[in-house]
Amino acid sequence: MAPQLKYVQIAEQLKRRIENGDYNFCAMPGVPKLAAEIGVSYLTARQAVQKLIADGVLRRADNSRLEICNRPGSRRNSFKVAFIHPLDVIPNSVWRNSICKTAGEFECSFREIVYCHNDDPLLYDGLDGGFDLIFLRFDGADPLFLEKLKKQSDRLVTLFHDLTRYGIRCLDGLNPAAIDDLIRYLYERGHRRIDCLNTQPASSTVDARIAQWRASLKKYGCTGRLHNDPVAPFVWSMPHAYNVLNGVIARGELDADALFCLATPIARAALRCFHEHAIRVPEDISVVSWGETEEARMAIPSLTTVDTPDPAPLVRQIFEHDLGIRPQPGRLLYRTAASNVILAGESVQERNLTNHPSK
C-alpha cells in the first residue's frame, strides 16, 4: 500500500481539528500560518487547503479568508458546544464526561477550553467564540466579568455557581443541605465531636457547605472545630490539606471522633496523614467526605461520602432545550435530586457512648 501523500495527511489533521471544534473560538488560519505551524512548505499547506475546499470542508469567504462549511444534515459543525473550566478539573470528571458524551449523541461539535488563571485570554476568547452553548466552571466573578457573563446569558450555563438571579442558567450538584444527612449518619453511629477540614479555594460553594456543617452540628447537639485554610485559586488543595492536618495534630488540636472533609481529595490527604501518625481510621476516628464517589471507593479504607447522582439526564435536558427538541423556557436551575444520599464506605465505625461518655 502506497504511503499517504503529505498534503493528504495534513488535510486529515486539519479536518480532525475542525471536528473537534478547535477553530470555533478563533479564525481559521491562512495558508502561510498553517505552513509555519505544521512545519511544511507553503505549497504543501496550500494543497491541503485546496483538498478541504474540494471536499466541502472549507470555503473562501468574500474577503478570501478561509471559513468552515456546515455539512448538510449534520449538527456536528452547525451547533457548537464548549466546556470552559480551570486547570484543576480532572479528565475523568463525571460532569465533563456527561457534557462531552451528550454533545456526541446530538452530533454537536465539542471543544474543551482550559484556562490557568482568572485573567487568562483563553477564558475570554472562549466566551467570545462562535459557540452556541457554553458550559462554564469558575469560582468567582468581579463586576466586570459578571457583566460579560450577563451578556452571554442566552447561551451560557454555569457549573456549581448560581447566577440565576441574573438570568444565567446553572447546572448544579446536590444541594449543600445533603450534608445534613451525612452529619445525621455520624450522629446515629455515636459521633458527637465532628470537625471540618477544608483547603479548597474560597468560594460561595465552600461557604455554603461550611454553613450547613455548622447548622447540622447545632441541630444534632454536636460540637466540632473548623480547620479552614484555603489555597489560592488554581493551587492543588490536596497536598495542603495533608500539611494543615499535620499541623492540627502536632498542636494537639484534634480531639474529634469524626472528620468531615469538604472534598474527597482532602479526605484522601487526611487518610494519609492519620496513617503516618498511627491514628487508625475508622477505629480511632471516622472520616467522611463530599462527592467524587469513584475516587472515594478507591481509597483505603473506602470513604463514606455524599453520593452525587448522574448528571447526564440534566445535561440532556439542557441540550434538548437549546436544540429546540424539548424547550423549557424560563427554566434556569438544573440541580440533581437526592435519592440515596449516603454512599457508605469503610471509613466510619460506630462509637460506644457508654464507654466514651464525653462523646
TrEMBL record:
InterPro entries: LacI/GalR-like_sensor, Peripla_BP_I, Tscrpt_reg_HTH_GntR, WH-like_DNA-bd_sf, WH_DNA-bd_sf. Transmembrane segments: none annotated. Pfam families: GntR, Peripla_BP_3. It comes from the Bacteria. The keyword Transcription regulation applies. GO terms for molecular function: DNA-binding transcription factor activity; transcription cis-regulatory region binding. The keyword rRNA-binding does not apply. Residues 184-309 form the Transcriptional regulator LacI/GalR-like sensor domain. Residues 7-64 form the HTH gntR-type domain. Keywords: DNA-binding, Transcription, Transcription regulation. This is Regulatory GntR family protein.
